[in-house]
Design goal:
The chain is of the alpha/beta class. The protein has eleven helices and 13 strands.
């Protein structure tokens, strides 16, 4: 059985939904935001309570765990470093310890933000250099997971998709602005490798099936600026790309520093899977298809 933490989040919900579609036995855990996925078993859990966590893991006895739960609001983490540390370091450390003692496979979801963004095209062998509290805690989480469970998998990711919660992923926010006829500001000086959460969910399950361990960069194959990504979203959904206007990140006056170029080299994951990661166009085509098929409405709660 696969246990997915953070099942009300974007990637967690996609993982539970896909595992259910593939007729795998799966259970999703959520904290404050109940989620409903047809046919899936979903349970409320406070993973910061180690006693409760141990009880849940003992009762469910998962063979694999995908730990998606995290504090991901970069500015919130900057203002609440102690809470961010508890959620992003203490909790995954405890889960890694539990899985190590039970011989369950563990896949920990990390972030491309562990790099300082000075050059991009980062490989797994490149030295991280986090520039904000969020990224620092996620990197600490990686190290704690491997310390507690050396056979764990670590996946550094960046994704968008249809969110189960009442909040928008980057692509959803772009679409909302376009639908209201507003100009969409896009950072022309920020580069990343976005991937659709549903594509990543397929990769995560494939990684577990292959019984792999260690660090993998799991992202889209194509580096783009956030400005260019927003223009591609506009084109995919039939809007005028001219609605997207270039902005520099400094104009946003964000509370926490952000890295400029977190593009990831995906050579290792492509070799492991025997196929390339999807590019921006392929991801956005599937993103649009999911809305047309009604998935976006079904996943919302």
């Amino acid at each position: 059985m696969i246990l997915v933490t953070g099942a009300s989040g974007l990637l967690g919900a996609s993982l539970v939904s896909l595992a259910q579609e593939q007729r795998r036995e799966v259970v999703g855990l959520y904290h404050r935001h109940p989620v409903r996925i047809d046919g899936a078993r979903l349970l409320a859990a406070d993973l910061m309570d180690e006693v409760e966590s141990c009880r849940i893991f003992q009762e469910l006895g998962p063979s694999s765990v995908v730990h998606c739960a995290a504090a991901t609001d970069v500015d919130w983490c900057e203002e609440h470093p102690d809470e961010a540390h508890r959620i992003n370091v203490t909790v995954p450390s405890a889960i890694a310890g539990i899985t190590s003692r039970s011989d369950a496979r563990l896949l920990y979801i990390s972030t491309d933000s562990v790099f300082d963004g000075g050059r991009g095209n980062y490989a797994e062998t490149d030295m991280p250099g986090p520039v904000n509290v969020y990224a620092k805690t996620k990197l600490q989480g990686e190290r704690e997971v491997l310390r507690q469970n050396p056979t764990a998998l670590i996946a550094r990711v960046n994704f968008y998709g249809w969110n189960a919660q009442n909040k928008d992923s980057l692509a959803e926010w772009i679409l909302k602005q376009l639908n209201h006829g507003r100009l969409v500001p896009g950072f022309s000086d920020v580069v990343f490798c976005p991937a659709l959460a549903d594509d990543l969910a397929e990769v995560m399950l494939a990684l577990l099936d292959r019984n792999l361990a260690g660090l993998y960069h799991v992202a889209g194959s194509e580096p783009v600026s956030k400005y260019e990504f927003a223009r591609r979203v506009a084109s995919t959904f039939g809007f005028d790309p001219a609605q997207v206007v270039p902005r520099r990140m400094a104009d946003a006056k964000l509370k926490a520093q952000r890295p400029r170029n977190t593009s990831l080299n995906t050579g290792k994951i492509c070799a492991a899977l025997g196929r390339p990661m999807p590019d921006v166009e392929a991801g956005l085509r599937r993103f649009a298809h999911l809305r047309e098929s009604g998935y976006a409405d079904r996943i919302k709660n």
